[in-house]
Amino acid sequence: MALDIDIRNLKRVSVLTIKGRVDSSNTPELESAFQTLMDNGRFRLVADLSGLEYISSAGLRVLVSTLKACKRYNRGDLRLSNLPPRIVEVLDMAGMTPLFKIFDDTVGAVGSF
Amino acid sequence: MPDKSCLTVPGRLDQLIIISEFIAQAARQAGLDERDVFHVQTAVDEACTNVIQHAYQGIEGGEIILTCRRTDDTFIVTVRDHGRPFDPSAVPPPDLGTDLNARRVGGLGLYFMRRLMDEVHFEFDDKTGNTVTMVKRIGPRPQDDL
Q1: In this structure, are residues A93 and B113 in contact, taking their beta carbons and an 8 Å threshold?
Q2: Set of chain B residues whose Cβ sits within 8 Å of the Cβ of A98
Q3: B28 torsion bin: left (phi>0), alpha (psi -120 to 50), beta (else)
Q4: Which of B105, B117, B146 to mutate to test the interface with A (most CBs of A within 10 A)?
């Protein structure tokens, strides 16, 4: 399936549910979703990746650049939840797992802020 | 699977999903397990992204020609284009460091291709174009380091 991004703004945290496939054709869409939230002062973000089927190196670069941007702000962060095993494998291969706080479920990730 | 299956698509990013579906189907028919199918899909996606963005430099009009074939113990994918050749040895290794602020981006695509496939070869020829050949062994590998 193509990329589908659903955004829920909670009191202090925004949750992005990212489903489908992230490749170089749609990384601008993902980047724009993150950027719009940050432009609106939302720097505490959780990405629920349970429905993410594929992410290319270009998609991983968007996650890392968003993480960097969020961390510039007080208590800002991009935390990841519900990672399918294949996505964990790709993150591990890219050496990115230690960069992120990763949670088994979205409730835990939201509550961690 | 048939001895060989081929797909020719325009060199555009919106074709990546079509390429991915073609590769998955060919790899499954060749008997690869789902993890290996995913590895081949990822490597081919990165190879084709490189073709579109670097060989064709984002300019539309070029084609990508994909071929999949199976031998007794390997699944072989070739990706061919007629864009600008590039020197894979000139691509620096990716920065896999854990210092977020110091970390450089880039170089991951080629790194993924080499990690996920058992062999990756590049050939550049004025007449036939650029060819990337990627080989996945079928069945247990001597060492599984992923």
Answers
A1: no
A2: 98
A3: alpha
A4: B105
Backbone dihedral region for residue B61 (phi beyond 0: left; psi -120 to 50: alpha; all else: beta) = left
Tell if the CB–CB gap between B109 and A57 is shorter than 8 Å: yes
Pairwise CB contact (< 8 Å): A25 & B16: yes
As given in the structure block, the two tokens for residue B20 are 């991915």
Do residue A25 and residue B14 have CB atoms under 8 angstroms apart? Answer: yes
The three-state (H, E, C) secondary structure of B62-108, written as one string: EEEEEEEEECCCEEEEEEEECCCCCCHHHCCCCCCCCCCCCCCCCCH
**Strand B129-137 and strand B74-81: pairing?**
antiparallel
Domains and CATH numbers, chain B: 4-137 (3.30.565.10)
The domains located in chain A, with CATH, are: 4-111 (3.30.750.24)
Q: What is the pLDDT of residues B79-137, one digit of tens each?
A: 999 999 877 888 888 888 777 777 776 779 999 999 999 999 999 998 889 999 999 99
At A10, the pLDDT band (50, 70, 90 cuts) reads very high
Contact: A54, B42; criterion CB under 8 Å: yes
